[in-house]
């Protein structure tokens, strides 16, 4: 069970205050159960403070409800949190169990601790990501009033969001397939007279691709870093065995190297996880954000296409002198819709730009500070290990 | 071809003839014929430790060791000798080309001709030196440091082309070998007996080319010897069980075996560490390239700059990781390989002792036989045959005595060598660990500097 430290209460004097956090989380076999804790003085809620248990699927359900809602078509919908993935940790734990016979008890214990720490880190990350998703929603002036959100936060029973059955999964797949072909079609056939959006489209498409690639490679790098740390453990344990069979003063010498290796391993592990957090995760987050932004652009394009179709329909009906009023009405709606979406989109995209630069810069700065701190720690460790070895 | 070495009295050191005779006649297994050809170098000179005239051994300072022997002091405690092997240069063209290494020796030991000597040697020269030293000293129970392996695959790659098989690999291989040769020479030089050996000295001093060592082509002579020895060994182990009267040997044999096994395991895990770090370096470089690509489509100018700088930073970090890989590999991995080889040499001496024991037992058996046949002839009254039979008996009595002495001598020497080995092991390992940590320290300091520089750059983005 993971317990979060108490959050300091910020007093929001407005009538519209809504604060959300994940106060607890429980990992059970395949599932993670999040305790979503809400504090509010919005009168629509029955209580001022309450908690419910939610699972990952319910978060996805909430995201999908926002996405489907045409009223939100002009906004960037915060990306749904990724599925909690304990697969790799579980695999490693299994491999460890299988290899138990081939390593010393001490080594086994250490590796087990290592894997447990890894599991815990993954766990913390998934909690953070789910929490951030909710906080984006409640801090958005429009999203925070959504009815589905309120249900999600308050409804004490299970939302009965069953996982999609096979038929629905196939439907989903086709939907996304048609959407992306539609997207491609639109981007090639639909002309956009607005420079801003043209540029945005070009930028987002290219940037998203490259960012995805960079994230993938950053992940590989941090994983390799972790592996280096793990192999140090193996060397340390072999040294320990060697030292145990050696009766000479060499034993002390070995011990000092073993100590160094164990400490440096912890350091390298920390470097790896900090890089993961500050670099990979930060990139990854914006991969999702830019994907959401692309979705927004797509919806706008769709609206533009609808608008132009409505125009054509209106012209046609004028020529045929049939249903002119209906056509006019439809065209009016399409025009408004398109305008609204365009305006909102412009704002959201602009704020995404500045948000992104600020957050990414901060992540890089944080990463530098952490790397420096760890490297200096490592230097201190090396110097002290050396002086220990050199004495006598 | 060795020079005649003369002691202060002007007498050349005499060759201990009888030893070799015994070996020639009594060895009936396969190893003997090889030994014969290996031993037939007539100019072989040996220096006996107990010889008063030997100049290189300084006063022993350590108290008597477990073997109750005069401790074999680490050579160089009064004298200084340091050998360095420089990067090889290619000589000749095409298939007949080969590499020569520059060997520079700095010493203040007086029986070397100069204080600084520079010669060029090719790899087969090193192998030839090792073979000669093995021939001369192994059967006495001396631990002769093994020469670097002749890695066939690496050599042919080198000869064919530098470009075809990735520069990095051949450069690695060349560096690996150069370093191994350097360690080999220094280790041999630190042994007081071997250091004074005329062949060794000639190797370091003779400015002209050494005659091509003939038995080093595909597999080195020592390698062939070892190969056959191993065959003989396995046969021996199956057919011959030595009654070990000396518990010291029993204990040490087990100790050596355990050490060997554990060192191998350690070596493979250090190799794994080096490989993992190499992987880290590669992934870092890949990431750097992708960060550079990202920067090209970043719309915010200053941030794009930060990304470019990140990419450059990561490339430099990749270089630092590679340096650490070198430390992992050369300072730990190769060092451990050396020791595994040395332990092999120790095991070889133990095996030699078993063979000496066998020789002695065999001689005793022959003596009994000869006595029996002499008695038979005597009682049968065939005085002429009996006479020659009794001559045989005398001859074999001498042989038995010699074999016993040999066996005891080799046992003593091994104990001496072993103690020295233990002492130098402590020093070596400690030194290796220190070098390793120093190398890592240097890398980490570079790493800090890189991050600090980048931090300044990043903080400046608007």
Automatic annotation (TrEMBL), chain A:
Keyword Signal among UniProt keywords: no
Pfam families: PX, Vps5
Protein keywords: Protein transport, Transport
Domain of life: Eukaryota
GO function terms (MF aspect): phosphatidylinositol binding
CC per GO annotation: endosome
InterPro entries documented for this protein: AH/BAR_dom_sf, PX_dom, PX_dom_sf, SNX5/SNX6/SNX32, Vps5_C
PX domain ranges (all copies): 12-159
Gene Ontology biological process terms in this record: phagosome-lysosome fusion involved in apoptotic cell clearance; protein transport
CDD domains noted in UniProt: PX_SNX5_like (cd06892)
Family: Belongs to the sorting nexin family.
Function of the molecule: Involved in several stages of intracellular trafficking.
Alphabetized PANTHER family for the sequence: SORTING NEXIN 6, ISOFORM B, SORTING NEXIN FAMILY MEMBER
Protein name: Sorting nexin
Organism expressing this protein natively: Artemia franciscana (Brine shrimp)
TrEMBL record, chain B:
Positions of region (Disordered): 1-22, 34-74
GO MF annotation terms: phosphatidylinositol binding
Compartment(s): Cytoplasm; Golgi apparatus; Membrane
Top-level taxon: Eukaryota
PROSITE patterns listed in its UniProt record: PX (PS50195)
Coiled coil: 249-276
GO cellular component: cytosol; endosome membrane; Golgi apparatus; membrane protein complex
Membrane topology, from the record: Peripheral membrane protein
Stored InterPro entries: AH/BAR_dom_sf (IPR027267), PX_dom (IPR001683), PX_dom_sf (IPR036871), Vps5_C (IPR015404)
Keyword Phosphoprotein attributed: yes
Domain named PX: residues: 79-210
Keyword set, alphabetical order: Coiled coil, Cytoplasm, Golgi apparatus, Membrane, Phosphoprotein, Protein transport, Transport
Alphabetized PANTHER family for the sequence: FI18122P1, SORTING NEXIN
Protein name: PX domain-containing protein
Organism field: Artemia franciscana (Brine shrimp)
